[in-house]
Specification:
The structure is a single chain. By secondary structure, this protein is an alpha/beta fold. Among the domains are: about 270 residues, LCP protein (Aminopeptidase, 3-Layer(aba) Sandwich), CATH 3.40.630; about 90 residues, 2-Layer Sandwich (Alpha-Beta Plaits), CATH 3.30.70.2390. The chain is about 35% helix and about 20% strand. The chain is built from 18 helices and 24 strands. The chain has an eight-stranded mixed β-sheet, sandwiched between helices.
Length: about 550
Amino acid sequence: MSGQRPGAFDDAGDRRDLSAAAPRPGGRRAAREAAAEPVRPSGRAEARRAQAKGGRGRKKQGKRNRKKVVAWTAAASVVLITAAGGALYTYFNGNISSFDAAGISTDRPPAATADANGNKPVNVLLIGSDSRGNGNSDLGGGGDAGARSDTTILLHVYADHKHAVGVSFPRDSLVEIPPCLVNGKWTKTQPNAMFNSAFSMGNTDKGNPACTQNAVEHLTGMRVDHTLVVDFNGFASMTSAVGGVDVCLPNAVYEGDLNPNLGHKGNLIFSKGVQQVSGQKALDYVRVRHGIGDGSDIGRMQRQQAFLSALIKKVKGSGMDPTTLLPLANAATKSLTVDPDLASADKLLGFAMSMKNIDLHNIKFITTPWRFEGARVAWVHPDVDNLWAALKADRTLDGQDASGGQRPDAPSGSPAAASSPAAPAAAPGSVNGAGARVTVYNGTTTKGLTVTASAKLKDAKFTVAATGNAAAQNHDTTVIQYGTTAEAKSAELLAQVFPGATVEKGSTAGLTVVLGKDYAAANGGAPAASAAAPAPLPSSIANNARSADDDPCANVSYN
C-alpha cells in the first residue's frame, strides 16, 4: 500500500493550508501548527538588519531591545502553547467515538471500592476488530461484511498500581454468551457459542463491543470498568506513530502463510529473527497464523502478547514527551471506539498515565487456561475459575497480595518505622477531636462497623467526613492514617478512640481510619466469615506468563 496512511498527521496538508489562509485563532489547525511549528526567536537575517539599522553607537540600546524581544517571544510562546494544548484536547475529543451504553447489561458484577487513598483495581477490555468497513479491507480484511474480534484481552490493573496482567481470550473458545442488545431487542442466552461471536452480534461494521463486555463480565464475574476497540487502520497508524517496534519471528514467513488461499509460497514477508515493524507490516505480524508453529490461534495470541509487550516497552522507553505523545494521541483517538465513560482525551490520558510507574517486569500477559476440543477451544476448570478468583482478590500470578493488604497506604521501604502503637483507650468523654474531619473505611467483611465507629467519633467531638468500604477487606488490625505533620496530633487522639490501632503517615492529606478485624471482634462479637483466600494458581500459568521486558524471541509460537 502506498501513500500516507489514515490517522497520521498531514503536515504537507497543513503547509498548503498555511499558504492559502491564516488559521482561525484557537482552532484545530492553530493547535496542530502550534504543536508542529514552535515559535522561534528572530533569526540571523533579522539580527543583521537590526545591526545595520542601529549601528555601533546604539549597542547598549540594542542589547536592551533584544532582551525585550526575547522576553516577549518567550511570553508569546507560552500563550500559544497553552492555547494549542486546549485546542488539541478539543481536537482529540472530536476524534473519539463511543458505543451506546444501552447495550451494556444491567446485571453486572459489583464495582470495586476505593481504599483510603482512592486507589482501586481497574479492569479494561481491549478488543482488536477485523472490521472490513472504513477502508480496513485494504489492510488485510476479507470481503465479508460485519466485524469480528480478532483479539480480546482483559487488562487487570491492580489496586497498588504497581502490577498489571493482560488475559487473552481465545477467539474460538466455546462459552456461554449472555443476552445482548441487537436492533433494539435483547437476544437469548447462547450456550456453547464461540467467544468472538459476541462481537459479531448484529453483523455491523462497528461490531458489538457492549455484547463482548457483557460476555466477559458474565464469564469472569469481574466488572469491566472500560472497553476500548481498535481496528486495522488504527492499529497500523499507532504503530507508525511510535516509529515501529521490535518483533521476532522463529522462522521466515511468506505471503502464502498470511493468505493460505494464495495457492503458492509467494514473496518473503518476514525474515527469521528480530526486526522492526510498523504500519502494514506490524498488522501482518499480529495477524499471521499459518507457517509458524502449529498454525493455531494459540500461537498467534502469543505473538500478539509479545507485540504489545514491545509496544509498551517502546512507549515507556521513549519518554512521556510531546514528540512521542502527540502523534500517538492523534492516531489513537482517531482509531478508538470506547465506552461512554472513557470518551474524552483527558480520561484516556489519565488512564495511560496511571500505568506509567508500573515496572515492565510487573506487566504480565497470559492466556485463559485452555485445552483443544476438536477444532475449537474449551476452558480448563477449575483453573480458569481460580484465575478469576485470584484477580478479583488482587492476587498476582505468583500469589502476592497487590491490593494494598493491611496497610494500603504504608510508605514503601520501612512501614514499621513509619508507624507506632496507639495509646491506651481513653475514658469516655475525655477525648476532644473538635475541628478534625475523619473518613472511616470498613476493612473487613463484617457489616455495620462504620456505623458504630462513627458514633464513637462523634462522641469524641470528631467530624465524620465520609464512610465506605475499603478496597481490600482483609485488614487484621485497625490503621489510622494522617497526611500532614499538623494532623499527627489528631491521629494520636484518634488512637485513643480505637485502642490497639496502628498510627502511620499516609500518602495524602487528611485523617482516615481503616477498621480491621480487631475492631470487629471488640465491637459486636466475631466478624463475619471472611472470604477464603483464592486457591493457588497452577505453576504453569505463572511459568508461561510473558513479562513486558522479556526477550522478544521468547515464547512466540505454539507447537
